Amino acid sequence: MGNMKRGRVWAMCLVINVAVTGCTVNVGSTESSPSESNDAAQPASTLAEPVATTVQAEVDPEAGWRQLVDVENAYSAGELSVLPDGVFGLMAAPDLRMFQFLNESWQEITDRVIANFDIPRTGLDYDIRIQSVLITNDDAVDYVVNYTPAPWHVLDAPNQGRDWGTVLSGQDGSWRSVAFVDPYGDGNEYTSVETIRYENGALFGNYYGSCGRPCGLLVYSWVGGAERLEGLEATKRQSNALPKPWCAAFSYNETLPLKRCDEGFPVQVVQDALNGLGYELEADGYFGDGTRFAVQHFQRANFVRASGKVDEPTWRVLFAAGGLPGNDLNGDGLVTPNEFSGD
């Protein structure tokens, strides 16, 4: 079957019909937006989360997976991994969840495999990033999963609030976090590293373990015979070639959508509104990763597509009570950033 790419079809809103069996729900589709019914609703607090559903897919696994990703309003989702014992998919919605295509439907198997994953179980909110790559030697998609504590919980997070992650593989028919070995220790294996990501054809991670200090950037390679990932110190060239986790530059923006690496008063207005709902962002007018994740969290809690961008549906829900510093100049019932006073 080959490796199947994922996609998102946000124009489609999936409507639950009937027959719930276990973790499988039959669905149909209509041409409506997931956020249309929320225009007049008051925004939910940070603690509110929508009720999770799962979906019986079409016979085509990839089409059904796209539907499921939409229904669950996932923050992140991986490509499909095709193994001898089936087709598998991984998403963050908002927690890490794994599904298998069985009997012409997608069924959740998280409870069966979660014990094999080295992932946080603290009950905090995490920005979970999923990358789909070929790392092990079974020619099936593996998943590089990185966890960033939510900015409003960073002081409560273990390990000083740093990122960490793992590589999930279905090698040998058993989904698990694969083993790592670092160059500083005595050969002991572990299953999570700091700030793991796959960039420029290589797997990188920061390791803070046996050297008693931040040991620096490591490059991990799969050693098939040992069934593990072995790390070596990254070269200066490799380090310099990595994309920076922060915005190299910010651009002023006063039109929707507001997005990562934007700056300006409209961004600060969004940050202030989110903080009023319990988020703990620095309202500095710079749209960084913390603001992006807070927006995604808010979107999911209010049944808006979790894009991480402040688009018009998100703006309407966030400012349903009004109070914006401007006037509705075009009469569309919405004060947008370009209609703020003084603009």
If you had to describe this structure to a student in words, what would you say it looks like?
- With 343 residues, this protein is α+β, with helices and mostly antiparallel strands.
- The chain has a domain at 251-339: Muramoyl-pentapeptide Carboxypeptidase, domain 1 (Orthogonal Bundle).
- 15% of the residues lie in helices and 27% in strands.
- The chain is built from six helices and 18 strands.
- Strands 3, 4, 5, 6 and 7 form a five-stranded antiparallel β-sheet that branches.
- The radius of gyration is 21 Å and the shape is globular.
- 38% of the residues are buried.
- Mean pLDDT is 81; it is low at 1-40.
Query: What fraction strand?
Result: 25-35%
**How many individual helices?**
6
What is the level-2 CATH architecture name of the domain at 251-339?
A: Orthogonal Bundle
Task: Give the helix level as a range of percent.
Answer: 10-25%
CATH superfamily of the domain at 251-339: PGBD-like superfamily/PGBD
Q: What does the overall shape look like?
A: globular
Question: Mind describing the biggest β-sheet?
Answer: 5 strands, antiparallel
Number of strands: 18
CATH topology of the domain at 251-339: Muramoyl-pentapeptide Carboxypeptidase, domain 1
Q: What is the top-level CATH class of the domain at 251-339? A: Mainly Alpha
Runs in which pLDDT lies below 50 for 5 or more consecutive residues are 1-40
SSE ordering = EEHEEEEEHEEEEEEEEEHEEHHH
Mean of residue pLDDT? 81
Distance between the termini: 55 Å
